[in-house]
Amino acid sequence: MKLSIEDLVDVGRGAAFLGTGGGGDPYVGRMLATHAIQEFGMPELVAPEDVADDAQLCTVAMLGAPTVLTEKAACGDDVDLAVRRMEKYLGRSIDAILPVEIGGVNSMLPIMAAARCDLPLVDADGMGRAFPEIQMVSFNIYGVSCTPLVVTDDHLNSLVVDTGTAKRAEDLVRVASIEMGCSVILSSYSMSGADMKRTAVHGTMSLALEIGRAIARGRHNGNPIDALIRHLRTTPYYSECRVLFTGKVTDLRRETTRGFAIGHCRLSALDSSDRVMEVTFQNEHLVARENGEVRAIVPDLICMVDSETAEPIPVEALKYGQRIRVIGVSAPPVLRTPEALAVVGPQAFGLEDAFVPIENLPESSTSSASPRGTQK
Amino acid sequence: MRIGVDVGGTNTDAALMQGDAVVASCKQPTTDNVSDGIVSAIRTVLGESDVSAADVQCVMIGTTHFTNAFVERRNLLDVGIIRVALPASRGIPPLIDWPEGLLAEIGDHRYLVGGGYQFDGRLNSPLDEKAVAEAARELKAKGIRTVAISSVFSPVNGDLEERAAEIVADVMGDVSMTLSHTIGRIGLLERENAAVMNASLAELSQRVVESFRAALRELDIAAPFYISQNDGTLMSADFVERYPVLTFASGPTNSMRGAAYLSGLKDALVADIGGTTTDIGMLNSGFPRESSVAVDIGGVRTNFRMPDVMALGLGGGSLVVEADGEVRVGPRSVGFKLPQKARIFGGETLTASDIAVAADYADFGDPAQVKHLSPELVEAAVQRIHRIVADGVDRMKVSADPVPLVLVGGGSVLIDRDIPGVSEVIVPEYAGVANAIGASIAQVSGETDRVFLYEDTGREAALDQARQEAVAQAVQAGARPESVEVLDIEEVPLAYVPGGAVRLRVKVAGSLALEASEAVQAKGAQGGGR
Fold this sequence. Notes:
A: CV3147-like, 2 domains, five-stranded mixed β-sheet, 16 strands, B: six-stranded mixed β-sheet, about 25% strand, hydrolase activity (chain B), Oxoprolinase-like (chain B)
């Protein structure tokens, strides 16, 4: 299967949805991928099971502040260099590019890289959503080393980081990336085809494409939210999903803690009830509470979309008065195991609540689907 | 005395103002030759009030001319584009996402050269002066007359764009130039798009401004004139010749500013009800709330300062139809044909205006023509009209607290009842020419949009610096220094960056120093509305 330039619009929208408020605006990424495809042609998208066990893969991603990326994104040669340096360090050639993060702008970088390097693109990633740190990846959780890790910039400087832990690599790369201008290209998680099959979230590039298409189709037929939910229910991972809340933004607070932008978005119900939802985010949405009760919590996905068009809304575009539907979606099973929760569960983000899968949490008190008896 | 003029697609409105008072106003059809309509409208208000042209201190004009020209792809020039960015940004070339029809108008004259800054103002790479000169020579050989210059992080530091412009001017001589940092915000592609749009209008803007000048000469008005920009503040005529793109969306802004002025309210909802649509927006501190999302204009993505306005399909000419036991109002409308088609004017079509007359809360046309309408139909339509406005009001509100609603525009007669969530409905005198009055409000603005590192500078010092820069801009554009007030401060921490990097946007505005208007115009020519 090959992606077309037209498909990129749908992939971008699906990726923004799976970005759960973070991951950066896929627009810049889509332009990068569009230009790469115009110059170098379409990359082949291969199913994970069709990749040879002994194939050599690596990931390519952009790391930086989304605001900086709107001004200074990848130049192209920096992407090629990241792959070439990885090959040199490994002492063998790369056979395919593997996305690391399907949510947000990094859904597009691997498409750009695969097109430029004339390599196939694996239909999988390491999150099935977006997360803010390098170690928050299924590859790491299940024992694939994040290093050697190559960082390149637009001046074609490159660094190879080789550390014991992903967390240590993350710390070093953060510092280097600021010096390099807060917008760098990263190649990491080199692995075999067999390791990819064992650790990756399979099929997520196609899933993003299909989610984007479902929203577009729904708009055409007049009910994009309904089309989105109905489509999610047919997918392998995102099938436990529901509209958690329909409301408008009535308060928005942001603070910078531990170097990360933490925010709280408060929504008030559109009906006359006193229902209030508070969504806390650290780049991505972490937890949604209705009148204090948890309705969905990381690593499950909390997505905000425009209540009419179902357009995903990134946290940077949140504003007072917006009409929003908050949709809770089950995370891929590989993110819900005990070893995964230690890395991407609520405690990894400083939350005290335990992880409870969305399907086991009570639904909203006014939701018709929920019999009273299931309320606690 | 000053005169506000709004040149819309359908009508040209004028208002003669003395201090806070409206001395005279009028509404006339817009003419093909825009200046004829302006002359006629100004002549009418001067004649009605018996004021001599010599007593006019200042004329302010709002116009949709440039927006329409761009969207309709009329009179656009081929644009030379020089992006000062390499080695950065090569992955996304200029014009990448433009519609093909527009690309044919703009041509393919794109150059990427070395230079640019980092997010925190550090130099990313020095300006490749040779490459700029080489690009300029090629553009000159192609006969290009207008050039857009963009650069990475130029809102943080515009020096490289300025230097590149000097080199281009040296090589090309008489050429129109648009520097991206003077019109756009952070976001290279969107800012560059705005610069290219502006450059494409360079000759049209000179012609239009010249026709405005000619109109005033014909009227013997020697006073300076200003043109309103999209945030509701003024640009000098000389400045608008160079930056026509800043007039985009000034129409809705002027209506809202006029509503604030007429009602005396600084924080309120405004509904501008015209013949076909109703624009609802929110006033904060007397200015329209701005849209935070990227705005598409004629298919091109930009990051202009646009008012956050919701357009509803309701106006005086909206069709009223009974179908499936339901009464519907709009979105279809008889539009400007209302005076022929509506029942009250002897026509055949039932419109929202007919309903307002039948329900006995508006008094125009011939009420006898709508006497026979069934009371049930009239009541259902009245409810429908109010529900449409109530829904729009609720969507634009930022809190559950009731706020006042100011109605302006010719269709304001459609509303007679309370609207839920609204503390009071105000229909000021002269509501019909609120846009012309909005244009006449003499304020100029300044804005800073930059990234600061709070850990280095400290938050207070950064805020202070940003405020001072914005105030300096407003003063340069002609504001009286003591009148400049902060309108808006937006702090957005940069995600994924430690070190307290914060994008800080400060916007200020002050009153135009009218008494020294000639000096102001000279300054405005350099500093302009930013």
